[in-house]
Amino acid sequence: MHKYFLILICFFTNGVSAQIKNPDFKLMLDSIYEHKIPLISVEEFIKMNKHSVYVLDTREKEEFKVSHLKNARNIGYFWFDMRVVYDIPLNAPIIVYCAVGNRSEKIAEKLQDAGYKNVHNLYGGIFEWVNEGQPVYKENGVQTSEIHTFNKDWANWIEKGTKIY
After folding, report:
1. Distance between the two ends of the chain, CA-based, in angstroms?
2. Angle of helix 23-32 relative to helix 2-17, nearest 10 degrees?
3. Cβ neighbours of residue 102 under 8 Å, at least 6 residues apart?
């Protein structure tokens, strides 16, 4: 039984990991994830019914203002407070993301510790979202090509869009 469970875990982890097309980016991502939170690929997220999903952006406000996923709620990272998610039901599907997934994984752990049962981390974060050609939006709802790269070093992982530091 445990053998089959382990195979199942490896299948799903590899399935999500295989979604990243840049092998160097994938290698970097796999080195930072602790894999405590289930991952969801860009492709899987696109297939979801977005009206029933809470999308939480765990980047800082400056990053969010440059661009974010449609209908995302900015909850931040450094000053994250559970009170900003008080209205989300504990069983609701939640997708968290940041630039590449490290900060969002930490926030997702806090959400799980608080009793949220259906939390997933967007594998590769907004960088992979943009690299896959998916749209991002400014604070006023207008689509943009700009993506906040956190800093010049992290900008190397962006293959599409206009890099903003």
Report:
1. 49
2. 130
3. 32, 33
Residue 32 has pLDDT above 90, yes or no: no
Alpha-carbon dihedral 16, 17, 22, 28, rounded to 10 degrees: 130
Percentages helix, strand, coil for the chain (3-state, rounded to 5) are 40, 15, 40
Which regions of the chain does DSSP assign to beta strands (E)?
Answer: 39-40, 54-57, 73-74, 94-97, 119-122, 136-137, 143-144, 146-148, 162-164
**Within a 10 A sphere around the Cβ of 23, how many other Cβ atoms?**
8
Instruction: Quick: pLDDT tens for 107-127.
Output: 999 999 999 999 999 999 999
Claim: this prediction has a pTM higher than 0.90: no
* Look-up of token digits 């800082």: 60
